[in-house]
Amino acid sequence: MLNHRLIDIFSEPETFVKKAVQFLQKHAKGKKVFCALSGGIDSSATY
Question: Tens of pLDDT along 21-38?
């Protein structure tokens, strides 16, 4: 099941950030991205 998620929630923070940036660069190339974070996994949103 975790293989189908964007990012493995058990990875190191540096790996999480690196994978997130790579994903966004690949899939949102040339588009605007809005991301809001506030400190908890349940309070993050991306549009």
Answer: 888 889 888 888 887 777
